[in-house]
Design brief:
Largest sheet: 6 strands, parallel
Structural class: alpha/beta
CATH class: Alpha Beta
Number of helices: 8
Number of strands: 6
Order of helices and strands: HEHHEHEHEHHEEH
Shape: globular
Number of domains: 1
Bound molecules: 3-methylbut-3-enyl trihydrogen diphosphate, magnesium ion
Helix content: 40-55%
Radius of gyration: 19 Å
Strand content: 5-15%
Length: about 250
Amino acid sequence: MTPDELLPQIRASGDVPRHVAVIMDGNGRWARQRGLPRHLGHREGMKSVRDTIEGAVDVGVEILTLYAFSTENWARPPQEVSALMGLLQLYARKERAELRKQGVEVHILGELERLDDRTRSAVEGIAEATRGGDALRLNLMISYGGREELVRAARELALRVAAGELDADEVDEEAVEGALFTAGLPDPDLLIRTSGERRLSNFLLWQLAYAEWHISPVLWPDFRREDLYAAILDFQRRERRFGRVPSP
Ligand code: IPE
Ligand code: IPE
Ligand code: MG
């Protein structure tokens, strides 16, 4: 079905997830299927990023969180890592004006100190240029790992306790949440993973505690807004219980 057919169905089916998180996977397989080098799969994936963002704005998602590069991805061959860093720079340069025009506010979350200077300043530049956008908050997770995030949070809280700013009893869920990269944001309601894989790969370990999962068979470079809309319709059919009994 086309996006124009799916949108009214979503509108008629109830609430749209406020926060959607996506594990964008399958670029390498997309390239391999075509006999192309892997980096061309990553490049093609940029079109999917654009279309997914526009689709999220149109359907009324408030927060979109995209997993672009994991801490484990640093262990890929150096030429692939540098191709990915180059693409992040290209993305930041090419998309910045358009994102600003669409009212998308970009936040870059992850261990940015591990990025080379050019990549870091390019991605920080896009965040700066889009500040104040109120149509969608886009979190680009770069050099991000869920375990590292929790370790950082634990360290930060330990330092505050040691400095006498915080009591050990005050280390509760709210305090941990406030020390994450995503501090202050509602948890994702919906997690999408493309390319059929069924694992978290160290993504948002804390925040995904109660997200609904949608596994899409589509490889990321082929993912378009209609696939996002299909995932949202799937989400709308779920009954979220949060450990309680079904509502009568
Ligand atoms: C996702 O595609 C992009 C990143 C992890 C950066 P992959 O590169 O993981 O593609 P596959 O899984 O090898 O097909
Ligand atoms: C997860 O995909 C990371 C990103 C999408 C950025 P991977 O392709 O790196 O994950 P694994 O290795 O299949 O678990
Ligand atoms: Mg992969």
